[in-house]
UniProtKB/TrEMBL annotation:
Lineage: Archaea, Nanobdellota, Candidatus Nanoclepta
Bound cofactor: record note: Manganese or magnesium. Binds 1 divalent metal ion per monomer in the absence of substrate. May bind a second metal ion after substrate binding.
Subcellular compartments: Cytoplasm
Official protein name in the record: Ribonuclease HII
Broad EC category: hydrolase
Amino acid sequence: MRILGIDEAGRGPVIGPLVIAGAMIEEGEMDILRELGVRDSKELSRERREEIFEELMKMEVRTTYHIIPPAIIDYYVEKGKLNYLEIKYSCKIIEELRPDRAVIDSFIRNSEKLKKMIYDRLSYKPELIVEIKADKKYPIVSAASIVAKVIRDREIEKIKEEVGVDFGSGYPSDERTIESLKDHYDILKDYVRKTWFTVRKIRDKRQKNIKDFFK
């Protein structure tokens, strides 16, 4: 039986993409993931995530991922449909890899509702498991979370190199990220989620300062 795990990285940041990833393995090979030390990516150091990611690429683990840029995220947020964006790409991953069972880390409280929304959109009907914190319970979802996190980390490094600004993690809780938005917004704007409250607040303050300057 082919088992697929799906998870994301980067739903909350103000800078950079959202990455939704899938990892699939035969049920009988699941112990290999445990032996490798696969667990929720948030519990691993960046170095360890990279090591496990490289090992996964060498193993009989099929992986896929989608990198969703800020402009697309903003489009869905403006329509109040951010959850539908994740549903869309979760379905894409299932259709790409065609598992017998798919296990998804639920991104809404009502896991049963999410399960039905995904199930109804599929062209075929695999077994679906949708649970909150599935990345802690199912190694294959942990593997997907590692893939998503590593790919997002690499995308963030590419952005930093391109713009020449080390803006930290891109999360609103990161002081370096906030200071970078204040000081280098014009440089970073193509990679910023403009619908996020944190960004709107900074933009409004910048515009007010400009108006005050010309008074």
